[in-house]
Amino acid sequence: MRWPSQSGEVFLLAGLCLYVLVVGVMPLGRLLIEALRPGEDGQAFGILFDVWQSRAAPRALGNTMIASVGATMVSLLIGGLGAAVLHLTDIRGRTALGFLLLLPMLIPPQISALAWIELTGPSSPLLRLAGLAPPPGTANPLYSMGGIIWVMGLEHAPLVMLATLTSLRALPRDLVEAASVSGARRTAILWRIVLPLARPGLLAGGALAFVAAIGNFGVPALLGIPGRVTVLTTLIYQRLTGFGPSALAQVASLSLVLVLLAAAGLLLRWLLLRRTSYLDRTGQPLDPFALGRFRLPMECVVWLLVLLISVLPLLALIASALVPALGVRLSVATLSLDNFGFLFSNAALRRAFTNSFLLAGAAALISALASFILGYLTTVRRNALARLLDLLADAPYAVPGTVLALGVIMVFLPPLPVFGVSLYGTAWIILVAYLARFLPLALRPVAASYATMDPALDEAGQILGARVPRRLVQLSLPSVLPATIAGALLVFMSAFNELTLSALLWSTGTETLGVMVFFLQYEGNSPAASALATVVVAVTLAVALLLEVTARRFAPSASLL
Amino acid sequence: MDQITLRQINKRFGNTAVLQDVTLSVEPSTFLALLGPSGCGKTTLLRLIAGLERPTSGEIEIAGRVVAGPDHWVETEARKLGMVFQSYALWPHMSVAENVGFGLSVRGMHGRERAARVEAALAMVGLEGLGSRRPPELSGGQRQRTALARCLVTEPELILLDEPLANLDPHLRESMQAEFRRIHRKTGTTFVFVTHDQAEAMALADRVAVMNAGRIEQLGTPQELYGQPATRMVAEFFGKGVVLPVDVAARLDDRTRRVSLGGVTLDLPGVAAVGAAQLSLRPENVVPAAAGLRPHLVGRVVDTSFRGADHLVTLALEQFGGKTIGLGMAAAPEPGARVDLAVTGGWVLPA
Fold first, then answer.
1. What pTM value is reported for the model?
2. From edge to edge, which strands make up the β-sheet containing B286-288?
3. What residues in B contact A193, CB-CB < 8 Å?
4. Which of A116, A135, B99, B170 is 20 to 30 A from B314 via CA?
């Protein structure tokens, strides 16, 4: 029997439906239902009311709002200035500067937080070298709301910078020249032409930074828990680890607010970006403004600040990893690699390396393959169902990771139908969460690559009688392979050092590197935590470098800058 | 005093020489076209006058003031110009009235006075009452008019236009040409506009500078360029026709030469020296030869197309390697038919 010629496409669609709907959409739907369940006395939305009548929840919400708004302000300031310096001035070394400014985004939040702790605390090896450390016994000044705002603000500043750069790059040179011809001087041009046109991008980036801050777990976990500043994500974590799955319905109600806040931020972003669509993207890009005699002083200030916020914390992290034990003064004599040796002698840490490598690798492969097929069906075949799946695939990435993890637990805690075993407590549940969470990261570069491919290439193959699988492999793959690889690397990089999901899903035997950094620091073994973080950062930056080289050469849409 | 004077302008981008020894002066109230193929440097020349690029060497004077030179530099914003960009460069975050009023507001003019000037400029270009529109809501022609109003409102003595009609459809282009002529007459402002379209240059300008490979080939009125091209490039680029090799046998007077065209001796206007030269023939310089007389040229019909009043007949000149010339004829001959031609005019230019 011959299969009907459409069957290849039908199978592919069925597989993608399984992926996107079961792994991504079902957990979110289930969470919504649980959160809105009636209370024990049968009152409609009872659980929601109960939770929000407690004292802890509104206080955590208040803290989440203060921390997120504050961090967004920091991100707007640093990201906006960074974009302006990179695109509007002629200072030297702008490419290097751009990558240094992106660095905080590449480093996972828990490691950024750890690095800042090691930089500013009373046992800070760097500050002690300089004789500036706070006296022993005093609390680290970053264990506070201010610390959370600062570190989260830095972590998300690249989001603002990239969004602003996109706006500035879409600003044609003509518009500035026309203002010059009209008699406007540089300041007038900056305030009346450049700023108004860059503002939607700046604010849209701010909205993105706000959404990221709402869902951030790593920073408030490392800074807020010791500082007794509880935000919604850490409250959910503490409730769930304290009470176990019995608290699921309760924390689901807490997480609903996270979803609403994130949705509000994304809606704002959408409204802002909708207004910029008419900018002409074909004109020549802006020439940078010459700073003249102010260039050298400006360069000194900018480089100093960038080194301070991007490089110094990492140096503190490395220094702290080289100290033999907490509190020992760093010098050539005390320098030691023992902490790195510990990483490979400890069984749990060895497991964590294996787990994170395998989980991140599997997530990267599977999501890249799914993106390759979904992108084909959406962009080349313009299949309506595939386009719906493409839209839905964004949801698990748009909501805070904590929310997704809760939904995944709810769906996969009961034994699976047919197999009769539960995924909860195994590494599979973490993989499921990664697949849901990181699919959009692979999908975006692949879709952008498909968009530049002429659909007639595929249609020509179809006319010559080639079926979908052959067309996919022989006609589409060569065009989109670089973007697919870039997407896979992006997924690997994000999953490899991820904490938010695995913090809620791990169990003994399925530790991830993110979890181990968190626990080592929690146990007070910050030299070991720093050593582990140093290794994770090194792997992450190596992958990022590989990604950037691949992207620059073959798939510009996946390039970081 | 000239409106613009360019002396020995050179412009290099890296190792590429874009302009070479360009010298030019433009009298006030001129409508000057910078005409040439793409890459000839015409837009760069316009941008140099605007101050958007700096010359590598040479001097630029606007209204008697040196604005660019070895020791002089006047920024664009201080040159008091108007400019219409090819993309129109309307600021998308401002209304039409705000776009037009921008130049007045940077000059410190506000309130009623500015509103009145803006309204007058909009009326001048036929956009009365559209001041509150946003650029994305305008048609192509309206955007063009807005860009023009934005120039006119500050009453500059010099307006630069960079391919202003290139983005309009052909029908709109003609009505905008008429509009440019009217506004030029009315304001008496000097217009310098860049175009690659010789018909547009012919229709609009009273002076045309034909540019090629970074140099000015010829500067003159459209009539001079058409009737007395100085170089082969001008003859071929400006107007229709064909350029054929000839030998100048004798100089009959200042502007008449005896030439040999494929063995036929003719007396024709021109300035070339004795020896090898070229003959620029326009379509109206040849007519079908009277029967019985020796033809000056022999053509074969390669194509005919009906134009309404007559047929455009394209003839390949067999003696000259198949070069073609178009000829209006009342009846269309069959393709491949022989047509004998007589030369009634032309211009003999140096080889």
1. 0.84
2. B286-288, B338-343, B297-306, B311-317, B323-329
3. 91
4. B170
* Per-position DSSP letters for A197-266, written without gaps between them: HHHHHHHHHHHHHHHHHHH--HHIIIIIHHHT---HHHHHHHHHHHHGGGGHHHHHHHHHHHHHHHHHHH
Q: How confident is the model at residue A44 (pLDDT cuts 50, 70, 90)?
A: low
Rounded CA gap, A86 and A64, in Å? 31
How is residue A352 annotated by DSSP? H
Contact A177 B83 (CB under 8 A): yes
ipTM of the complex model: 0.80
Here the tokens at position A327 are: 């509190």
The nearest alpha carbon in chain B to A199 belongs to: B93
Quote the strand ranges of A134-212, DSSP E: none
> CA-based angle A143:A108:A119, to the nearest 5?
40
Query: Residue A343: how many CB atoms within 10 A of its CB?
Result: 19
User: Using CB atoms within 10 A of its CB, is residue A517 exposed (0-12), middle (13-18) or buried (19+)?
Assistant: buried
Q: Are B170 and B181 in contact (CB under 8 A)?
A: no
Query: Closest chain B residue to A196 measured between Cα atoms?
Result: B93
Residues from chain A that touch B106, judged by Cβ atoms under 8 A, are 182-185, 188
Query: Measured between alpha carbons, how far is residue B4 from residues A57, B8, B69 in Å?
Result: 74, 13, 14
pLDDT at A3: 47
Q: Which of A30-39, A201-210, B127-136, B246-255 has the lowest mean pLDDT?
A: A30-39
* B61-116 pLDDT tens trace: 999 999 999 999 999 999 999 999 988 889 988 999 999 999 999 999 999 999 99
Question: What residues of A are in contact with residue B160 (Cβ under 8 Å)?
Answer: 181
Q: Which residue has the tokens 């609903």?
A: A256
Question: A124 burial class (0-12, 13-18, 19+ CB within 10 angstroms)?
Answer: buried
A172, A181, A197 member nearest B81 (Cβ): A181
Q: How far apart (Å, rounded) are the C-alpha atoms in residues A479 and A45?
A: 51
The pair of structure tokens assigned to A182 is 């009209």
What letter represents residue A162's amino acid? L
- Taking contacts as CB-CB distances below 8 angstroms, the residues of chain A near B103 are 182-184
Q: β-strand B65-69 against B72-73: which pairing, if any?
A: antiparallel
Q: What is the CATH number of domain A8-36+56-558?
A: 1.10.3720.10
In sequence order, the β-bridge partners of residue A294 are none
Question: Which chain B residues touch A188 with a CB distance below 8 Å?
Answer: 106
Residue B309 to residues A147, A536, B84, B174, B312, Cα–Cα distance (Å)? 85, 82, 38, 22, 10
A168 and A87 in contact (C-beta within 8 Å)? yes
pLDDT tens digits for range A267-321: 999 888 887 655 555 667 788 888 888 999 999 999 999 999 999 999 999 988 8
Alpha carbon distances (Å) from A281 to A189, A227, A284: 20, 47, 8
> Please, what is the angle between helix A401-412 and helix A195-215, to 10°?
40
Is A283 part of the contact surface with chain B (CB cutoff 8 Å)? yes
> What does the domain layout of chain B look like in residue ranges?
4-227, 240-350
> In angstroms, how far apart are the furthest CA atoms of chain A?
82
C-alpha distances in Å from residue A468, one per residue of A8, A385, A444, A480? 6, 17, 22, 16
Could you tell me the CATH superfamily of domain B4-227?
A: P-loop containing nucleotide triphosphate hydrolases (3.40.50.300)
Which sequence spans correspond to the domains of chain A? 8-36+56-558
Closest by alpha carbon to B74, among B53, B51, B45, B55? Answer: B51
Instruction: Write down the H helix ranges in chain B.
Output: 42-50, 96-106, 111-124, 140-152, 170-187, 198-204, 222-227, 232-237
Q: Which residues of B touch A (CB under 8 A)?
A: 50-52, 75-83, 85-87, 89-93, 102-103, 106-107, 136, 150, 154, 160
Q: Retrieve residue A154's tokens.
A: 């830095």
Pairing of strands B215-220, B264-269: unpaired
